[in-house]
UniProtKB/TrEMBL annotation, chain B:
Span of domain PD-(D/E)XK endonuclease-like: 18-255
UniProt xrefs under InterPro entries: PDDEXK-like_dom_sf, PDDEXK_AddAB-type
GO biological process terms on file: DNA repair
Native source organism of the sequence: Anaerolinea thermolimosa
Protein's recorded name: PD-(D/E)XK nuclease family protein
Single GO MF descriptor: helicase activity
Domain of life where this protein originates: Bacteria
Keywords: ATP-binding, DNA damage, DNA repair, Helicase, Hydrolase, Nucleotide-binding
Amino acid sequence: MVKLTPAQHHLLNQPFEKRIFLEGPAGSGKTTVGVVRMLQLLHAGVPGDQMLVLVPQRALGIPYLRALASPEAPPGGQVSVLTAGGLARRMVDLFWPLIARQAGFAHPERPPVFLTLETAQYYMAHLVRPLLEEGFFESISIDRNRLYSQILDNLNKAALTGFPIEEISERLSAAWNGESSQRRVFADAQHCAMLFRRYCLEHNLLDFSLQVEVFRNFLHPSFLCRAYLHDSVRHLIADNIEEDTPFAHDILREWLPELDSALLIFDQDAGYRRFLGADPESAIRLAAACHETLLFTNSLVTRPGMETLGEALGNVLLIYSPHHSQPTPPQKNDWKEILNFPPQSLRFYPQMLDWVADEVARLVESGTRPGEIAILAPILSDALRFSLANRLDVRGIPYRSHRPSRSLADEPAARCLLTLARLAHPKWNQPIEPEEVIHALFIAIDGLDLVRARLLGSIVFRKHSRQLSSFTQIKPEMQERITYSVGNRYETLRTWLSDYAAQPEMELDLFFSRLFGEVLSQPGFGFHTDLDAGRVTANLIESAQKFRQAVENAGGMEGTSPGCEYLAMVRDGVIASTYVSSWQPPVEDAVFIAPAYTFLLYNRPVEHQFWLDAGSNAWFERLYQPLTHPYVLSRGWEPGRLWTAAEEYQTNRETLFRLTLGLLRRCREKVHLAFSELSEGGFEQRGMLLRSIYQIQIQETRHG
Amino acid sequence: MDKSRSHPETLREVQPFTFSQSSLQDFSDCPRRFQLRYLFQLSWPAPIAEPIQENERLTRAGERFHNLARQALLGVSLDALHESVLASGESNLPLWWQHFLQLIPLLQVGECRPEYSVSVPMGEHRLLAKFDLVQYFATEQRAVIWDWKTSLHRPPRARLEKRWQTHLYPYLLARTGLPRLGNASLTPSGIEMVYWFPHTPDQPERFLYSEEQFQRDEESLQAILAEINRRQPSQFEQTANERHCHFCVYRSLCERGIQAGSLEEMEGDIDAPGESSLDLNFDQIGEIAF
Ligand code: SF4
């Protein structure tokens, strides 16, 4: 049973029918009281199926789900824990026949096809690729997949902010303050967005933006959907509304007067998901629609030094600029106890990583639980994740990451399956490299080492024929070297593939499933007891299946099969390059390696944080996004205003302040600042984060 | 090795656990399957039944039917739904839909709660039911739980009678009542469980519940939960009944065969894996990393 503070008790003593707006800093016990309020309502007899917990993203709903899954929750209907986007999608799925025609879909009689991030990227690539050949976007150099995702992002921002998609380029251009050639890029992005939207309407495809728009413009006003929601959402708890979008806030504003109870929870100094449309200014306005605003002020998490350092950073980053007065030094010096620096200056990047791993090992040896340590970077590249993972492995420290260190298509099991799929479908004419075949045999056949895999692969595979030849055709002395047991397994695999190729083509996901079940996971083959290979295969199948279903439901594609197209898209990096769904079972007691923003949104305080590469400018600068803009496309932006360099600089300072404050408020013991003189690329490091901390030190020394 | 890839091996490590009819049935059919699916949370994507395409088609048709039924019961225009059935190109769906249309007048008596889920604590765990439809007759204080079964072959009544679903669903409804429909406490004898088969609509299987059955079910639920809780990792043994293995995705891991069993022999009481104790529908945008 959690021990509650007087402020929490005060909130829980409020009558249910009161609409409460709760505000406070991270770590002041807001979510805890949200969870207790939910249980309080359930114990008071409120039917669970009339209650909605709205969160901006999945991770933030976990405390509520945990409580609902515990025996403390009373018997009854299930509480829904949803995001606003999830709610929109559910409603569109349920009431599709009501609005499909009116919303302009060409085939209202057919079911909607919900696009995942992957499949949306695929359709965008399908439409934009020919335009790239015609010279679209030629003035910018950007990875194609990032280009596709930024066009989708613009559509999402328009839907979440609530302006027509026709205005995207107009808004971006009006705020642009640089070379005029960029306006052409915005016009190209607008053209692609319109093309994509038209294609979606013609083929019943709903990307995230269209799900939101259809719900907002057609379903939410409809009588049946409104009646359904009115009946199923009588009690509402909306947590972390500062991370949610104006779309979510608009729904809340409409619902609030009619609800039987409501608790809105706002985290001060946050709004980390601005890149995804979060709008804290829009969230705070909801306070006016509530009966009362309650304030939690005290941190239940951090030591006083954290607050002192937070304030000092605020002085440096928010108030001080070269034209203004000097920042005031920290009022207390308790902040020094919470900072840990490397004992001597570290020149090179790998030395910094070694220091981090050593410090983590030292902490664990002295009794800190690994789960109480987070290693945070501004951006976590695969290479960095891998380097850290290796160092922790060597020291025997358990760790977990917000996603696996490789993309799905790079997983050995997935690479093996993809190569075997190309071998089994010679008609698809997909290129196959000998190295890929050697790797696939090495992974697929148990007991085959790399040397013999190379020998076997180089004999049985000929690049021009794209086929495998029989083991029986190999010279006996070579057969002996490879061994007969391996030869038998190889023959089982080869025969299976050639039998398959002789029959009518099967859907690719079903092909993977059968190959996995009948060969690769059988005794004598590489996946037999490899539980990770099973998970990777399941993910690949899910990705291929969603792709196929999206393509089939949208009326198929001309001249090629979905399986063939899927393999080509994987090769291009459009698909299976990121993990959208998590496939790692969570392990609680492990060091958490993540980007700093991801850690904030997991919202789980730890004792020790390592701020990696603290000298890097990546802590301060916004990601390069030439096609979109989180501020210009937000609701608060005045159309026609220019986005200046000074504004960019000041916004970056504010963002860095909010980020560091958020981290400090989620740290119980110590922040370990890890930095090296030279960056990974060999450049001197003089980033704003480190400079600000030095500045605080200097101010304090001056003021004695 | 990535240290994050470990998993719990006993139920004691995953407390609290939410038991559904599928997980209880899995344990009864094969304790090893329960361990692999719910404790190891092991995705093992082998075919369930052959022909694999036909099985997939039937599964999708079943999902489609459930969705249609829900939409119809929530008041979506039957004409629009009918149009979508015809456009689906799905061979079983028009007949199933036709049969369902004939059933609708019967379902319009009393009050209806389609797709209704309840959960109840039991010891350190919870029990969960997802009803396709609960129909409530206020004057008689009587409730009917409807479950749509779209599988190709209907299981014999005796087998249905033994399934956990037949016991768990009425038990949980008796525990929770229907507070939204004005009845917080239904007596067990006022509850009936009906399996309705859209391809043989005139032969539903009905099971009346009773006070005695409620008591027996409570005891057996407590006993099975305690039994699962007690087991050590090595005590989740493989089933002796290899029929279960024909339609089980883990057959290669357990060395219980190569090919999946024939769809023709698969009875409708075999569940496909994939049900999770936290079955939530989150949108795609939430997981995009910064
Ligand atoms: S294959 Fe057979 S023994 Fe193995 S888990 Fe499945 S049912 Fe149990």
